[in-house]
Amino acid sequence: xxxxxxxxxxxxxxxxxxxxxxxxxxxxxxxxxxxxxxxxxxxxxxxxxxxxxxxxxxxxxxxxxxxxxxxxxxxxxxxxxxxxxxxxxxxxxxxxxxxxxxxxxxxxxxxxxxxxxxxxxxxxxxxxxxxxxxxxxxxxxxxxxxxxxxxxxxxxxxxxxxxxxxxxxxxxxxxxxxxxxxxxxxxxxxxxxxxxxxxxxxxxxxxxxxxxxxxxxxxxxxxxxxxxxxxxxxxxxxxxxxxxxxxxxxxxxxxxxxxxxxxxxxxxxxxxxxxxxxxxxxxxxxxxxxxxxxxxxxxxxxxxxxxxxxxxxxxxxxxxxxxxxxxxxxxxxxxxxxxxxxxxxxxxxxxxxxxxxxxxxxxxxxxxxxxxxxxxxxxxxxxxxxxxxxxxxxxxxxxxxxxxxxxxxxxxxxxxxxxxxxxxxxxxxxxxxxxxxx
Length: 438
What we know:
Layout: H1 44-58, E1 70-71, H2 88-93, E2 104-107, H3 112-123, E3 136-140, H4 144-150, E4 162-165, H5 172-181, E5 194-197, E6 209-212, H6 217-232, E7 239-243, H7 247-250, H8 252-260, E8 264-267, H9 274-282, E9 288-291, H10 299-308, E10 312-315, H11 320-329, E11 345-350, H12 355-359, E12 372-375, H13 383-391, E13 395-396, E14 407-411, H14 419-429, E15 432-433
Parallel strand pairs: 2-14, 3-4, 3-5, 5-6, 7-8, 7-9, 9-10, 11-12, 11-14, 13-15
Antiparallel strand pairs: 1-6
Helix pairs in contact: 3-5, 4-6, 6-9
């Protein structure tokens, strides 16, 4: 159990996790993106500048080869010098921050596709070449497992954010974001400007493309792990095994993969897939952490992993909200966020939108680097999450300019997380005076 502690106190590390009571999870209808009108790419540079201002205020501080081959067939840099105010339609398309408080910033897209575009341009404003990523990962929005596994490519040295495509065409928001990001590839990406996960539509004039064949969740993740090994030139420090049948329990893995470079592998609840087993056998000395309770990853699976790996441990909460908090609190050696004190960034998304975990992953590997937390309701902050925010609430005694600060990125529109809930999160993240003279 994490002990109760005063605000801003030093916290000893713990290998154990606090499991919160199980909240009821209401169902939410899947929201489809609204049709998008044509936009002017020339406005993208101006939009990037708009984001920079908002972020400062809102935060503190052709031939083709399969199986990882490269095809030559780069998106052009965004044209125009800006000069015009961005239209509301363009801002909505790219999910630029539309509502920020002093401790929170919202990426308010109506779908993971628009959220991913907004996140990518938030992390890589792309006003200059130095602000652009060398590569971007394209994956189908419905392939949530492939997207979560692909989040590892956001970790150094590759630093490739996720955008969503489809099998038939590149969505307009992704196309505009990709044109602004204008990835050109470099040594760290193996020369690729795009990583295509599965059979997804590519932009016209795509540059060098490294493809990962799609299959089931385990097979796709195994290929991404192999690609990560090749690009980084070294084995991972850890593996994170997630459930392929319980996406809400798998979501927090995306943020950790992007931050750490630890690959995400998938398993069924009662059977370890051959593709996952094969990757683990290639790295028998690499520790493995299973994310989720026994309902998501059974005892038998963990025992099977333990026969292969040097060590196998479980990180879990009873429900998706508590599960995300468990990973946020956890530490074992160099694995885990160990966020048990003030002074951190956080990312908050809805537990019923697994693709948003991958869309937001780049925020956990840049800026205020923080774990993904989950809410299961648009109007009410879960009690366990509220308790956690209180536990890490920042405070000061004499000088607020020398204090630690928290900042929370909110992912999704008001149907996902309401403005009232965002306001409550803002209050919980607010710096407060403790002790000393009034």
